Amino acid sequence: MDKVTPLVVAAIVAASIGGGAAPPPPSVPMLLDHNRMTVEVEFPHPAGGVRKARAWVDTGGTDLLMSESLARDLGIEVPAFPPGEPSAPSSSRAPAMRVGGVALDTDGMTVVVRAGRVALPGIQADCTIAPRALRRLHVVFDYPARRLALAPPGAVKPPGTPVQCRVNPATGLFLVDVTIDGQKLALGVDNGSAGTWVSDALTASWLARHPDWPYAKGAAGSTNFFGFPFETRGILMRLPAVAVGAAAPVPDVAVLGLPQELFDWYSRKSAGAVVGFLGADLIARFRLDVDFSAQMTWWQPGPQPRQHDLDIVGLTIRAEADGSYAVAGVVSRNGRPAVEGIEPNDRLLRIDGFDVTNTPMGNVIAALRGRPGTTRTLILERAGKRLTVTAPVVRLP
Predict the structure, then answer these.
(1) DSSP label of 123
(2) 51: which of 10, 261, 271, 363 is 20 to 30 A away, CA to CA?
(3) What is the CATH number of domain 152-301?
């Protein structure tokens, strides 16, 4: 027998105890709020050492969005904000970033600074991680295990159903083909969105084919992103199933139908034309592996949610910059509001004794959910006066 080298011995031992499988990549815990993922990141601090921060992982974003407080601490130039605009691009270069000891690709990325202590209202994060920073990695979005892992391409043998994706090499945004109601559609994969949004041309076509499918007007549950004005005019539906490639169909998916112009804009930063995007309500039901350089994804199902997304008080809420929440709109069905006595721009103060101010948006949405037929006691403020409304929990749409 030839001389056995230490490397050969190591290979034999590895094969005997693990079948030759590569060790799992290092991972970091993720926190989920309103389906949106945040993780701890590290920046080099100008005074030495590292500055830890909380980052919102947003596969639909393009820039490094950073709170004013974090930017000042890192020595990032804080621009003069135009009148009425809460954010503006900085002239500073994007700093280095690391997650779990793995360097992200921030070279040439634009830094956008937002006034205040958080990157966006309603999200407890100091900054964002856009897919451009991940585009040279294999990323494991392990929602069932609540872990995020980063590895070099080819270093992970992922479980789940393989699904080809298309990746925009400049932005890192990617899309997949899905099947809904027998129709193959290209949708972005946007874990930064709490829920799934699609073109209103699609919702109109589904209702034409299935006039018995219920629908409502206005965002609720996962489809209530930040409470943008256009959310209040969207068509709210629950789809029987959505299949990503050959992966097992996902049942009972809430979607909001919005003007195609929104997705024309989204298409310009994605890898091609899309008619919507899959949000984290669907994505979070999987361990999702993405090898950006190979343009491949793998989808392994996890536990299904125990609570219906749209068993909820029919309100669209808006996160405000001061940490408060307002009513953006009231969901309507058959021309009737789902909640009486509430008007747009009412300030939402409490839900069943729970003070919503300065709390993550996911806590507010969760407090509005419940068992259909029960009620929630809402304390609101309108024109300086407080009012109490007993709001029904209903199954939308």
Answers:
(1) B
(2) 363
(3) 2.40.70.10
Per-position b or e across 122-147, b if 16+ CB within 10 A of its CB:
bbbbbbbbbbbbbbebbbbbbbeeeb
Which residues face 54 on adjacent strands?
40
pTM for the predicted model, two decimal places:
0.92
SS3 of the chain: helix, strand, coil, percent, to 5: 15, 40, 45
Q: Which residues pair with 217 in a beta bridge?
A: 235, 332
Contact assessment for residue 120 and residue 105, using Cβ atoms and an 8 Å cutoff = no
Per-residue pLDDT of the chain (397 residues; tens, 9 = 90+): 333 333 333 333 333 334 445 677 889 999 999 999 999 999 999 999 999 999 999 999 999 999 999 999 999 999 999 999 999 999 999 999 999 999 999 999 999 999 999 999 999 999 999 999 999 999 999 999 999 999 999 999 999 999 999 999 999 999 999 999 999 999 999 999 999 999 999 999 999 999 999 999 999 999 999 999 999 999 999 999 999 999 999 999 999 999 999 999 999 999 999 999 999 999 999 999 999 999 999 999 999 887 899 999 999 999 999 999 999 999 999 999 999 999 999 999 999 999 999 999 999 999 999 999 999 999 999 999 999 999 999 999 9
Query: How many other CB atoms are found less than 10 A from the CB of residue 324?
Result: 16
Tokens of 169: 């090499």
- Report the relative pairing of strands 296-301 and 311-312 from DSSP bridges: unpaired
The closest of 273, 106, 314, 300 to 177, measured between CA atoms, is 273
Peptide bond into 397 cis (omega under 30): yes
In 3-state terms, what secondary structure has residue 367?
helix
Element (H, E) at 94: none
Other beta carbons within 10 angstroms of residue 229's beta carbon come to 11
Which residue, 304, 299, 303, 295, is CA-closest to 178? 299
Q: Please tell me the total number of residues recorded for the chain in this structure.
A: 397
CATH number for region 34-133: 2.40.70
Helix (H/G/I), strand (E/B), else coil: 126: coil
Nearest to 397 by CA among 211, 237, 234: 237
